[in-house]
Every structure is written in structure tokens, then in C-alpha cells.
Amino acid sequence: MKRNKVALLLAVAMLVSVCAVSAMAGEETKPPILIAPAPSGALSEAERAAQEVLITPDAVGTVSFGNIDSRMRQNNLTILTLQQSVDTLEDIDYAEMKEEVRKNLNLMAEQNWAMRRMSAYEPVGSMLAISSAEQQYSSLKQTFEDLKDGSLQEENAGLIRQLRNGQDQLVMAGETTFIALKGMEVKEAGLERQLGALNRTVEEMTLRHELGQISALQLSQIKAGQTALASGLETLRMNIGAYKTQLELLLGAELTGEILLGALPEVTEEQLEQMDLEKDLASAKSRSYELYAAAETLADAKKEYEDAADEYNENEKKAEFRNAKRVWQSAQYTYNDTVQNYELRFRTLFAQVGDYRQAWEAAKDSLAFQQQNLAAAELKCQQGTLSQNALLDAKDSVREAEEAVETAANNLFSAYNSYRWAVECGILN
């Protein structure tokens, strides 16, 4: 039966130390590394190498979306810490470790035999020492068996997969933060536009109040709206600064809260047409650490059931066997539910990309309509049949439509980017 994650980490640390003890004298050893748990699966090194392209470095104080991945993998301290753990695990020579464990087993066996002989002369406290030594021997013997049958190698490979996906999760968080900031900047522009329009309204209403056309209460209500909108804008700007600081932290950049963001890439028709639900779902499932971990849990439950079946000879009259059988059945239900839930989330994301695509097309149509209205308003203003404020309102409508197009494009890219993370790394958040 496979050990739990904590026991695995302790075993890895012990095995690494066993090899270090037997290393040649004077060789420098690395300090132990704390391996933090991480959530999902990752691309192989070959796939990463295939994706590497020459990129233009960002100017100081700026970041482009395409450079987030490389900058985070080079500078993010958590990612670098995880990489040290990956390197440590990949650096293990299992053949050498197996031989060292075998030698240590023989040495411990000799020591235990000697302790038993000495216990006849010094019985006080000797039984406790013998018991402790035998437990250590048993634990090391289990490690040797795990090395022989490859289970330790398999578990470490799974842990490497988990660690690498932890790195991917962090990079995805950086990209998500970037996309969220772009949306916040669009909202900031919208609030600035609304505040400008409200400022014009306040000026007009102030003049009308002076002419006695509206009451002081009506004017104060409009000014209260102006104050609330200005306050909301300042709060949004504060949040943008906080998000930018978080992005800078993820990038390993100087923490100023003022980093400038490049434009988001536009999702192309070719990219959208290449989406294949069933093919992409199969790819996502094969790369998902979430499903991999669920399968490992299922395998552990099956092994426990088989052990109980052997111990109780599948005797249904034994409550212990019946309980083990129920636990095994429950584990199967849980695994199937995990797979179904994963598939549902993936299909929902696929549909979401399509929905954002049509929303983007609709927003572009609306923009074209508002641009036509603006052209007509400009002509009327030139002819003297439309006021300057009305023309400014028409221009605001165009800017509002432009913001709607940008928001729709951002939403589409966000959904598509999440879809690609699922297909290429199995990550579904």
C-alpha cells in the first residue's frame, strides 16, 4: 500500500541522507529542502523545450502577456524553490540508493544481533533499545522492498509531476492576474468617461439652478452622485495598484504597484476553429494531476480491499471484510464522480469560449452602430441642429461601445487561455 504524502516526503529525505552518508569524504552535501504541496499536472521537459521561442525582453517597469511564463519561471521565488525540490528528486540514483540501503540493512542486522547478546548482561533498558532498533530495521527494509519493486520510483515520479504542476498553477495565477488587471483598466476608463459626463451635467445643472430652473435639493442630489462616482474611481485605482503589486511579486519584479501592462493577445478565428471538444478533453484528462491523484487514491483503496479479502478469505460473515468492501465501493463512486465532475467543468469551459465569442461579435456590431450615430451627430452639430453636449454624449456612447468590445475580447481571451491550460496541462480551476 502506498504511503501518504507526508510519509513519502520523510522517506525521500531519509533516502537522500543515506546516499549522502556513504558519499566520498569531503564532498559537499546540499541542505534538506522543504517540499510544498502543489495542485496539478504539468508539461514534460520535451514539450516545454518545443514551446520555447525567442521573445523580446520587457522594458523596465513593463510586462507583456507573452513574457509572464518565462519571467515567472526565472524569477518567482516559490517556483524556484519547487524547482530545487524537483531537481533533488530527479538527482536520486536509485541503483546506488538500493545498494546503500542493502548495506545499511546488513549493518543494522549485525548491530541488532550484538544488542541482543549484550542484553543478557545489561537487561535494564535493553529491551526498549532493541525494540527501537527493530522498528528502524523494519522501516528501512520496507524502503528496500519499495526500491526493488519500483514503487518508490513511481511515487517520486508522481511527486515530481505534482511539483511541476504547482509551478504551472503559479504561472496561470500570474496570467489570470494580468487578465483581471486589463479588465479593471477598462472599467477605470469607463468610470472616467462617466465622471466626465457627470461633470458636464453638474455644470449644466448648476447654471440651471442659478437661473431658478431646478431646486438646490436637485442640484445637491446630482453632486452627491458625482462624489460617489469619484470615490468609486479612487477605490478602483487603489485596487489596481494592489493587483499590480501582486503581479510584480509573482514576476519577481520591484514592488511599485505601477507596472505597465501590454495589450492582451487577440484570439484568432484559426485558434477557435481548431478547438475539438472530445480530442481536447482526452488530452486534458491524460495530463490532469487532479485525475492522476484520484486514480492513485482509488488504487490504494483497492489494495486495502484486496488485503482484507486475503485476510478474511472474502468471508461475508466477517464485519471487517464487509466494511472493507464498502470502503472499496465508496472509493469507486468517489473516483467516478471526480472524473464526471472534471468532464463537466471542461465541457462548460468549452461552451463558455463559444458564448464569449458570440458576445464579442455582438459588441463589435453595436460599436459599428454607435459609430454611425456619431457620424450623424457630427453632421447635425455642424449644421447647428444639435448641441455640443449632445455631440459629446454621442462620443461617450462610442467610447462605451469600444469598452464593451474590449471587455468582450478580454472575456474571450480569458476563457480561451483557461481552455488551453486545461488542454495542455490538465489544469481546470
**Percent of residues in β-strands:** under 5%
Separation, N- and C-terminal Cα atoms: 30 Å
What is the CA-based Rg, rounded?
32 Å
Poorly predicted tracts of residues: 1-43
Order of secondary-structure elements = HHEHHHHHHEHHHHH
**Estimated structural class:** mainly alpha
Number of helix segments?
13
Number of strands: 2
Mean of all residue-level pLDDT scores = 85
Helix amount: over 70%
> Quick one: overall form?
elongated
- Biggest β-sheet, characterized? 2 strands, parallel
Q: Which strand order do you get reading across the main beta sheet?
A: 1-2
Write a structural description.
It contains 13 helices and two strands, in the order ααβααααααβααααα. By secondary structure, the protein is mainly α. The longest helix is centred in the C-terminal third of the chain and has 65 residues, at 319-383. The two termini are 30 Å apart. A two-stranded parallel ribbon has the order 1-2.
Brief description of this entry?
With 429 residues, this protein is mostly helical.
